[in-house]
Amino acid sequence: MPGSKLSANRRRQEYDYILLGAGCAGLSLLMRMIRTGKFSGKNILLVDKAPKTTNDRTWCFWETGKGFFEEIVHRQWSSLDFLSDTYSATLNIEPYHYKMIRGIEFYNYCFHEISKHSNIELLYGQAGGMVHHKEGVTLILDDKELEPGRAIIFNSIYHPPPVSKRYIELLQHFKGWMIETNSPSFTADKATLMDFRVPQGHGTAFVYVLPLSATKALVEYTLFTKELLQQEQYDKELKSYIEDLLMIKNYTVSEQESGIIPMTNRKFPFYYDGAYQVGAAGGQTKASSGYTFQFIQKQSQQIVDCLVADKSLDTIPATPGRFRFYDNTLLDILYHKRFPGKKIFTDLFKKNKPRQVLRFLDNESSIADELKIISSLPTWPFLKAAIRQW
Ligand SMILES: Cc1cc2nc3c(=O)[nH]c(=O)nc-3n(C[C@H](O)[C@H](O)[C@H](O)COP(=O)(O)OP(=O)(O)OC[C@H]3O[C@@H](n4cnc5c(N)ncnc54)[C@H](O)[C@@H]3O)c2cc1C
What we know:
The chain is of the alpha/beta class. About 30% of the residues lie in helices and about 30% in strands. It has three domains: about 5-55 and about 100-160 and about 265-315, 3-Layer(bba) Sandwich (FAD/NAD(P)-binding domain), CATH 3.50.50; about 170-265, D-Amino Acid Oxidase, subunit A, domain 2 (D-Amino Acid Oxidase, Chain A, domain 2, 2-Layer Sandwich), CATH 3.30.9; about 320-390, no CATH class. It is built from nine helices and 21 strands. The strands form four sheets. The chain has a seven-stranded mixed β-sheet, with no helix packed on it. A seven-stranded mixed β-sheet has the order 8-7-16-17-18-15-19, with helices on both faces. Helix 1 runs parallel beside helix 4 (about 295-310) and helix 5 packs across helix 9 (about 380-390). It is globular, with a radius of gyration of 22 Å. The structure holds flavin-adenine dinucleotide. The site of flavin-adenine dinucleotide has 27 residues, from helix 1, strand 4, strand 5, strand 19 and helix 4.
């Protein structure tokens, strides 16, 4: 099943499922479909603009026990450092484990599995949206048209909506260096979740450190702000963090990664424009943290469970409204700089048990947990932001 280029100008093929986007969401969904063994008689089309050949991202997330992608977890930690000027601690996050998956290993693993299934067709082309007409929709791929017929379409290609003053649009943006040293410089069984001891002049900023060994670690400088920085500014902050706070003077940079994750209080409809929207395009990015990987896994599992049970996908429950409200409230504070993000995260980790915080950030906390967490945060800024977001 090597990937093919779109050949005919107008293509009509009877697919049961079309997946637009072969990134985290498209591949997580397809891998789950494959694992059930229930879709081997179905024609599935997977579309992406280009083959996945680079390590374009590193995913971190937490979970208990073994997860669906356990085989390709590159490293995992159950101890995480949280550092700020006023509070520093090593958090024992058990029963959770903080896990790291390298993008390229994820892609290779998924495409290796997909290649064993002749019912899955892989097509490379630029998806240019849908044209609606009386008989349904037509997919535009490159300059060609594809009639989806009765296929159920899942879309994970994110088309940023036009900017609107009605919504908060904050950016989580980051740059990371994989650094290597000659002598032991890291504690390999402990990662740094957030180090807020970096200048906060641009807005909420922190560094995280993911050690792969005593001499190798991914050091990533992250900001939650409205504007991006110049490349030299990320480099300058990374350099001073490594040299002044990690006290490492001799090192080489073997890999780099950077990214932008939109953090917004927009609502993302599940069914839109003739397709079910999944992944970041379907609002699976947590607005207040940018974490997406585990939300994609949950959504993929819910979709596959529904398809297998022959239930309508519209029966999948939406995220409880109260979690959106919490996210939007924090987003409002960060966006309007009503209170320093550094102090909020410090209070969060200082005054609550790590597992409670992680459960809360996973949208899986109980109301009792949430009341405890809310009471640990500064009352006035949160109250004012909550009223605005209501
Ligand atoms: C560098 C980086 C690091 C991240 N780290 C984390 C992390 O540690 N933890 C976490 O929870 N989240 C993280 N995220 C956020 C989120 O998990 C990822 O963005 C994730 O990849 C989102 O999955 P997705 O399938 O929605 O989008 P993508 O994985 O981006 O997949 C979309 C796919 O659509 C394809 N595509 C785009 N446009 C077209 C087009 N016109 N035609 C055809 N194909 C197209 C792309 O090639 C891509 O394969 C990170 C994001 C980035 C960018």
